[in-house]
Write a structure and sequence with these properties.
- By secondary structure, the protein is of the alpha/beta class.
- The protein folds into four domains: about 80 residues, Alpha-Beta Plaits, CATH 3.30.70; about 170 residues, DHBP synthase (Alpha-Beta Complex), CATH 3.90.870.10; about 140 residues, Nucleotidyltransferase, domain 5 (2-Layer Sandwich); about 190 residues, Nucleotidyltransferase, domain 5 (2-Layer Sandwich), CATH 3.30.420.
- Helices cover about 30% and strands about 20% of the residues.
- The chain contains 21 helices and 32 strands.
- Strands 6, 7, 8, 9, 10, 11, 12, 13, 14, 15, 16 and 17 form a twelve-stranded mixed β-sheet that branches. A seven-stranded mixed β-sheet has the order 29-30-26-25-24-31-32, sandwiched between helices.
- It is globular, with a radius of gyration of 27 Å.
- About 55% of the residues are buried.
- The structure holds zinc ion (2 copies) and fe (iii) ion.
């Protein structure tokens, strides 16, 4: 009898792959075995040529969440007298390879069990199977087996043991398998730490408290979340004041599809994402007259919406009977709490009640955020469901060496490039707090241990004060490996180029908040020519001063003041900008500018957005970074108006004519939507001017400004219409969450150039 051995790589562990192989072999009467190990899955099968060929074809088609990336088969010697097909125990001790399964949303079969009276797991909040459940948030090491997960503390009961051992059961080798008899349990505590209720009673009491307007801290899949009634303005306001989060939109979890459809428009592609194993938060268009109050996402035509991704969420949302705000358990700018003691300490002042359980969370993993645009999806936050899936980069020469890139400072991620595959950490958030920089160091240790990696190159930002830069410097000294410092916007552009496997020269339009430039000024409105590991700054926005420096990021009126100073010198603020300044503030800023004191120059397009939003009176004070730009995007809507002009010389775009145009329109009493539409059209013109100057067929778009769907669409239309190939981020964030990818790509390219 012919016998073949196959090496299978991809997402093949923790997703029911081996049982699927077993069933396929059984159906064809094959003998042999399948074996899980650190490199993936190996199997040997013996039978007729026809059956073996059919078997290998079927292996490639094993459905999601499994994903076969490569299957290499070879003929080997027959094993006489083999009687059956078996699943062997996992091997140990080999060098692990980046094949760690991400967490998977509750599957339909498990949801049906949880909903069906009489089932063993009826209303059990920790139900899972090989197709769904926690993975990355419970794994301690590879290969993925129960003794190396947070579930090791829960010995299986005889019923679960039987399912776990039965190759024909849906829970065969489902590592987190559990039931009410043997698995984790719910407990409800007050902020005082006193136990209020357990099990079903805890769930009911938590739901009732939510209906009464309480803030609930919920121990979710990858960390603590804060929940309130999304249909009650008072409850949302309470959460905003406690979390010190004034206006930033909250995500909302809906009990089911039907309730979500009452609040949001959902395309077929968006519906597929909502029901996918990744189950990200989707930025959906709101319907008028929905149940969710405006305070959840003030002034925003979109709502971050998602469906319950664990049985616990499903049961809680059903019991509450309404959509709930579901946001990370943290104070603004801190990472999410995920350990019980830490959560109690950090969230004690934020939540009224804690709905918790005794399954430990191994590492914090936030919810992912995705938006579907006319031309496809773009991932804005890469976390649950995606991290830490290894992605094969299509760039040549990336097979070595091993690179660790530490990212930037906000919305940070870390990336590990090994053997041509890139593993990006889950979204880690801002590194400003002590907790943030601790999480960074912990994630690095975690990834290196997990993937058995010994980096030969390190990469970081140019900025000397980022916690990521300081850690990179320390590690480079400790490991005696070279450190590549990558300019912030170079990394942005390189990330998008790497995502699309662009190897030749390309133009990168990196439009962003601010990042330290190679000349010591703050960049962010750049046209960079990328070539190998190098870049040339072809063009940029003409720099203008930011009075008060970093304070301008959260005070758009300061950007407006600096821009007017650069364009027309000293003077009084025009209305409606004048209304945004109290007392002597305008004069004080003018004094700073006149003395060139604490007024760094910037070419940031994000700050130009701020300035224009402040000039129009749309948004001038306080808030979160990007809020002013969002106000302009939403004000423009779908309006198409004539663009403002630029003074464009040798790649430098002077916005003086644009500012004059805005002021003239304001004086003529034109509304903010008209001005916003003209501004977006002007930016599309700017993109085209730079693309024509560069004369390269490929243009990559990256940087925080391209979170703006309108800007992205306008630039794509303009460049596409002129025959350029435009590439935008898809699987990696266009904001600073994508920086680590770009740093890793640049670092490895430095070794190719030599
Ligand atoms: Zn399931
Ligand atoms: Zn059990
Ligand atoms: Fe950036």
């Amino acid at each position: 009898m012919p016998r073949r051995r196959c090496q299978v790589r991809g997402v093949v562990q923790g997703v029911g792959f081996r049982p699927a192989v077993y069933r396929l072999a059984l159906a064809r009467g094959l003998t042999g075995f399948v074996w899980n190990h650190a490199e993936g899955v190996t199997l040997e099968a013996q039978g007729t040529e026809a059956d073996l060929a059919d078997f290998e074809r079927a292996l490639q088609e094993i459905p999601a969440p499994a994903r076969v990336q490569s299957l290499v088969g070879e003929a080997i010697d027959e094993v006489p007298g083999e009687a059956d097909f078996r699943i062997r125990e996992s091997g140990q001790g080999e060098a692990p390879r980046p094949v760690v399964p991400p967490d998977l949303a509750l599957c339909e079969a498990c949801a049906a069990e949880v909903d069906t009276p009489g089932e063993r797991r009826y209303r059990y909040p920790f139900t899972n199977c090989t197709r769904c459940g926690p993975r990355y948030t419970i794994i301690e090491g590879l290969p993925y087996d129960r003794p190396r997960t947070a579930m090791k503390a829960f010995p299986l009961c005889p019923d679960c043991e039987r399912e776990y051992r039965d190759p024909l059961d849906r829970r065969f080798h489902a590592q987190p398998v559990a039931c009410p008899a043997c698995g984790p349990r719910l407990a409800l505590q007050g902020a005082d730490g006193i136990l209020r209720a357990e099990g079903e009673a805890a769930l009911a009491a938590a739901a009732e408290a939510l209906r009464q307007g309480a803030v609930l801290a919920l121990k979710g899949l990858g960390g603590y979340q804060l929940l309130v009634d999304a249909t009650a303005a008072a409850a949302v306001g309470l959460l905003r004041s406690r979390k010190r989060r004034e206006a930033k939109p909250f995500a909302v979890m809906f009990p089911d599809r039907a309730s979500l459809l009452r609040d949001c428009e959902v395309s077929p592609e968006e519906a597929a994402w909502l029901a996918s194993p990744e189950a990200p938060i989707l930025l959906l268009r709101r319907r008028p007259g929905g149940a969710v109050v405006a305070e959840v996402a003030p002034g925003n035509p979109r709502l971050g919406a998602f469906l319950p991704n664990t049985p616990l969420h499903r049961l809680l949302l059903a019991a509450a009977g309404r959509p709930l705000v579901c946001t990370s358990g943290n104070l603004s700018d801190e990472p999410m709490a995920f350990e019980d003691d830490e959560a109690r300490r950090r969230l004690g002042g934020l939540a009224d009640l804690f709905l918790s359980h005794d399954r430990p969370i191994t590492r914090p993993v936030d919810d992912s955020v995705l938006r579907v645009d006319a031309d496809g999806p773009t991932l804005l936050r890469r976390a649950r469901g995606f991290a830490p899936l290894a992605v094969t980069l299509g760039l040549e020469g990336l097979s070595s060496p091993c690179v660790l890139a530490l990212g930037a400072h906000q919305k940070n991620t870390v990336a590990l490039l090994k053997g041509g595959e890139l593993v990006m950490s889950q979204h880690l958030g801002d590194l400003t707090s002590l907790e943030g920089s601790d999480l960074l160091a912990r994630t690095v240790d975690d990834l290196l241990a997990f993937f058995g990696a010994r980096p030969e190159l390190l990469a970081c930002d140019l900025h000397p004060d980022y916690a990521s830069t300081r850690l990179a410097e320390r590690l480079a000294a400790e490991w005696q490996v070279p450190l590549v410092r990558v300019q912030h916007h170079h990394a942005h552009g390189a990330a998008c180029a790497a995502e699309h496997a662009l190897t030749g020269p390309a133009l990168a339009l990196t439009w962003d908040g601010t990042g330290l430039g190679s000349d010591g000024t703050l960049w962010g409105g750049e046209a960079l020519r990328l070539q190998g590991a190098a870049f040339t700054r072809l063009g940029h926005l003409k720099p203008f001063p930011l009075p008060g420096g970093a304070a301008a990021v959260k005070q758009p009126r300061r950007s407006a003041c600096g821009l007017l100073w650069a364009v027309q010198g000293a003077g009084a603020p025009p209305p409606p900008l004048a209304a945004a300044f109290d007392g002597a503030e305008w004069e004080q800023l003018q004094t700073l500018l006149a003395g060139a004191f604490n007024s760094p120059l910037t070419s940031s397009l994000g700050r130009l957005f701020d300035a224009v939003a402040a000039l129009t009176g749309l948004h001038a004070r306080g808030g979160f970074e990007g809020q002013a730009a969002m106000a302009l995007e939403f004000a423009a809507g779908e309006r198409v108006e004539a663009p403002y002009a630029w003074d464009f010389r040798d790649g430098t775009a002077d916005p003086a004519p644009l500012v004059a145009g805005v002021l003239a329109d304001l004086a003529a009493g034109r509304d903010a939507g008209f001005i916003a539409a003209r501004f977006h059209a002007a930016l599309a013109d700017l993109a085209l001017a730079w693309a024509q100057q560069a004369g390269l067929p490929d243009v990559v778009l990256s940087g925080g400004c391209f979170q703006n769907a309108l800007l992205t669409a306008r630039v794509q239309q303009k460049l596409g219409g002129a025959g350029f190939r435009v590439h935008r981020h898809r699987a990696f964030p266009t904001n600073d969450g994508g920086i680590s990818l770009g740093q890793a790509a640049v670092a490895v390219l430095t070794t190719v150039d030599r």
